[in-house]
Design a protein that fits this description.
Helix content: under 10%
Distance between the termini: 13 Å
Structural class: mainly beta
Radius of gyration: 13 Å
Order of helices and strands: EEEEEEEEEEE
Largest sheet: 5 strands, antiparallel
Number of helices: 0
Shape: globular
Strand order of the largest sheet: 1-2-10-5-8
């Protein structure tokens, strides 16, 4: 299973935490289905990706666009649409302190 490169930091607010990560997807990478333990705001910094949440059609995003992911929803696909360029995005996750940030589906 291919895992993206992650760099980030956290800030605690009472019983919650805000985690900010920059995520890089190598050319052609497809991320396995997963869920997040909190609300996620995503801003695409570089590249072009396709993302799909459960019950929704796939959506394509280009650098400068953003989207949200409700806590716990199945994120069935994230895909770097380029075979030559890395896609890079900022993910800001608001969750409970003890929440699992990313849980692969089926684990």
């Amino acid at each position: 299973e291919i895992m993206p490169s992650l760099v980030g930091s956290e800030m605690c607010i009472r019983d919650s935490v805000v985690t900010a990560l920059t995520i890089e997807l190598a050319p052609g990478t497809v991320v396995a289905p997963h869920r997040h333990g909190g609300f996620v705001y995503v801003y695409l910094l570089e590249g072009r990706v396709r993302s799909q949440l459960k019950g929704e059609p796939p959506k394509e995003y280009v650098a400068g666009q953003s989207w949200i992911e409700p806590a716990g929803i199945l994120h069935s696909k994230t895909e770097n649409l380029s075979n030559t360029e890395t896609a890079k995005f900022l993910a800001v996750i608001y969750s409970e302190v003890d929440a699992t940030i990313t849980q692969p589906e089926g684990e």
